[in-house]
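debug: dumping io for the single-chain case to check the tokenizer round-trip. Nothing else runs in this session.
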Amino acid sequence: MAAMVPYSESMLPKGIRSRFVEGVNGLTVHVLEAGFEPPDRPLVTLFHGFPELAYSWRKVMPRLAEAGYHVVAPDVRGYGRTTGTEVAYDDDPAPYSTLNKVRDAVWLVSALGYREVAAAVGHDAGAAIAGWCALVRPDLFRSVAMMSAPFGGPPQLHFDNALNGPAATLNDRPGRNLNAALAELDPPRKHYTWYYSTRGANEDMWHSPQGVHTFLRGYYHHKSADWAGNQPFPLSGPVAEEFAKLPRYYVMDLDKGMAETVAEEMPSAAEIRANTWLPDRELAVYAEEYGRNGFQGGFQGYRCGTSGVGAAESSLFSGRTIDVPACFISGASDWGNYQTPGALERMRDHACTQFRGIHFVDGAGHWVQQEQAEEVSALLLDFLRSG
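debug: decoded output
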């Protein structure tokens, strides 16, 4: 694999630079950075989700920097130009667990010369990274903003059952029974996290008939407010019949891959030309990175979840809460708010002891910080200034 180089200035908004930080928990981490001058500004870290990159924060970073913050967005382990992106299915997924990504974040902050972070901000899978940063190291990460994926807290251990016979364990592959029940529906379905955990998922998406650029166009469109089918509502419980109400990009047809799924909902040529939040020249950045690396680096994190490795690791923190100021920001048209029944309420009522509110942004689906960057920037600045 050829040595990675930073992004050219022409790829980025004014005031953002691309560089590498070496010696980060065994990685060389590619970061985008804004507000790096003058020195000693409060640090804000931004963690992306799947299938995204540090580049997903390009529209938010200048606003935070203008307000006086040093803003750093890394390509998370397994993504983009951070080392370790040549990942194979047979590689051990354990290094891609959320808690090891928190370790990456701690090392990165230290490498940057900071002893405190004003806020950890995360979107999608990055929301879990940010949430766990705040839960595990509240001394370092002084507040947290989570987007598009509610943080329901650590897994709960079985309590007071020593004399009550055997119970399910954290290693029983959470969701396995639900996925089996989905397969029994008419038509049969499957959960996307389990599809992402299969050997064939990377090949399906990386070498899809439509190509990476067109595949990503369909994927981003399907989960955005631009797709008319995104009219989310809470599910009544974690049962197959309720999960079947989710769009196909979450609960897929059993016999289809993701490339085929999103191809059925492609935007028209006119819709693509009219897209201002992700024009083709910006989508091309994602297509280049995923075209080179494939998607397995991101899938390894899902495999930690479906295998039970992630739950077993995080069970150490059972009963712990996020005790720094916290908020949640998401698109009003984002099904991610409800794809885990009860998580939004657990985050609000139990997981965060200094919760500052839920903000649903109109005109945004799942990619809220790209679809409505101005509103998201304003909400983040209000949160940061609230102390």
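debug: round-trip ok. The first helix runs from residue 61 to 66.
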